[in-house]
Design a protein that fits this description.
Number of strands: 12
CATH architecture: 3-Layer(aba) Sandwich
Radius of gyration: 18 Å
Number of helices: 4
Structural class: alpha/beta
Largest sheet: 8 strands, mixed
Length: 224
Amino acid sequence: MNGLRNYLWRLRQRNKLACYWLVRLSSRASLFTFRGKSYRYFRHRYNATWRNERAVEIPIARGFLAGIPAEKVLEIGNVLSHYGPVAHEVVDKYEQTEGVTNADVCDFKPGRKYDLILSISTLEHVGWDEEPKDESKVLRAFENLRSLLAPEGRLVVTIPLGYNPPLDKLIEEGRISFSERIYLKRQPRRNIWREVGGREVRHPGYDWRVYAAHELLVGIMENR
């Protein structure tokens, strides 16, 4: 049985590699626009980024990181290290690996402030994919993260809409308030994204077959 599992795992990895190069060689759309700036789609074997929101989340996150000293950055959820080396602090409650602090985002009290806090498709899991389920826990998470911002600091989060409907509602009602909300919408049947207005994402759907969003929110909180 173990031999069969290993064979199937290796087969999946080979298929991912084949798909990765097929996408790289055949894809025509290489750029997307975010806040008036062009970014290159990010394609990587890990998590098959060519078919989900990681294709835009990673370049957007790296754009916010540019020019900020690593010691002034906190990442909630261990994401970026899967796609390249990172030097900033990372907090992830569950993923145990070198360079990651295992702590609950609501309880994390480092005794310092950050110029940039990043969270890529992570906060929608807080309280929603935990036992016991607590739909209001994400409010405490945002409150704690806001308290960790330095003066003029910035919290940037990406949230796949439709994954956690109670969280979507909290944002829509303004109980989680952003200084700026930017929405990206995926083209049907293709992983091509365009920036849209909030009215175009009123009824977000989520593709549970491949765990991919059709609409993505990039929320920015400024500590002014």
